[in-house]
Design a protein that fits this description.
Elements: E1 5-6, E2 36-46, E3 50-54, E4 62-65, E5 68-76, E6 86-99, H1 100-120, H2 122-125, H3 149-158, E7 174-177, H4 182-193, H5 197-210, H6 216-232, H7 238-243, H8 247-250, H9 257-266, H10 288-310
Helix pairs in contact: 5-6, 5-10, 6-9, 6-10
């Protein structure tokens, strides 16, 4: 079992310097092995700012874990349209290196650690550390093509003599959670490492689905994970399986477990596109309301099964 050695009085610091390298040609230098630094250097990585609210009190974690220096920071920042408890959250990671060999190893370890955090953040903050978020974009264009639509639009705006509507499209995605997410994510990571193969597979399928763009890819991933969750949960019927879930999850389902399995197996968007039979006949598509309910409920049931299987509190 991993030990979490976090101390509230620990301080992480870093200095970013960009000295002139004096390279003979432009490019990225490739360090040979065995280059020793005259003085130890600190690698510093910082997440993009997240809009998080923590309602249960507690302090952000600061300290050392598996050789990494970790620090959570939550800065109060009042923004229009956001709850007052939501602030700007960042997570920083540091590792000291003394040579080019240590740099190569440390950078790979940090990337692997960040990838783990992205996965297990789901069970601490409700979503991956870097989630796929629906955004409304008014910047029109065609992927893979250059264009001057924006310039033409701006020209017309400058010459418009009528009233104009202006839309504020700044990102306002935020999450409110009961506690700071770092330690719960590390606990979920430790539980995963000792979990059964089916428990690990369920986490992997859940993560893959939530990292897929909204659409058929995400629905297909959730359907696969839901099928595995159904096999893991005890009970002979969908009703009894639903009853073993945490009450908080069961009370927040929009539909029944049986309805979800029907959608997973008998709709065009999910696991099977074609009806059985001698002629080609597509299965019916889900409505917008059905898609929303399926995504919401499947995620809840999968999440509840993971918590139950990995014994994550």
């Amino acid at each position: 079992m991993n030990t979490f050695k976090f101390q509230s009085n620990a301080i992480l610091s870093h200095e970013l310097q960009e000295p002139e390298l004096g390279l003979p040609v432009p490019g990225v230098p490739i360090l040979p092995p065995g280059v020793v630094a005259p003085e130890p250097q600190t690698l510093h990585y910082a997440s993009t700012t997240k809009l998080y609210g923590v309602t249960g009190g507690g302090e952000p974690s600061v300290g050392e874990f598996e050789g990494f220096g970790l620090q959570e920071t939550l800065r109060v920042a009042v923004r229009n349209g956001l709850p007052p408890e939501v602030g700007e959250y960042t997570l920083s990671i540091e590792r000291t290196v003394k040579s080019s060999d240590e740099l190569l190893t440390a950078s790979a370890e940090v990337r692997g650690f960040v990838s783990d955090l992205d996965k297990f953040w789901i069970y601490a903050a409700g979503e991956p550390l870097n989630p796929i978020v629906k955004r409304v974009s008014l910047e029109r264009g065609i992927a893979g093509w250059s264009h001057n639509e924006l310039q033409v639009r701006d020209y017309l705006v400058r010459n418009c003599r009528q009233m104009l509507a202006v839309v504020d499209s700044r990102d306002q995605h935020w999450v409110v959670m009961p506690q700071f997410p770092l330690v719960p994510a590390l606990r979920a990571r430790a539980a995963y490492q000792s979990a059964t193969p089916s428990g690990q597979a369920l986490v992997d399928l859940h993560y893959s689905a939530l990292k897929s763009s909204y659409g058929e890819g995400r629905l297909f991933g959730l359907a696969k994970a839901l099928e595995l969750a159904r096999q893991i949960l005890p009970g002979k019927s969908d009703t009894t399986k639903q009853q073993v879930l945490n009450t908080l999850i069961a009370d927040n389902l929009h539909r029944s477990f049986h309805w979800l399995m029907d959608m997973a197996n008998n709709r065009y968007h999910t696991r099977h596109a074609v009806q059985k039979g001698s002629t080609v006949q597509l299965k019916p598509k889900m409505t917008g309301e059905e898609i929303a309910d399926f995504e919401h409920d499947a995620d809840l049931i999968i999440r509840g099964t993971v918590h139950r299987e990995l014994e994550i509190l």
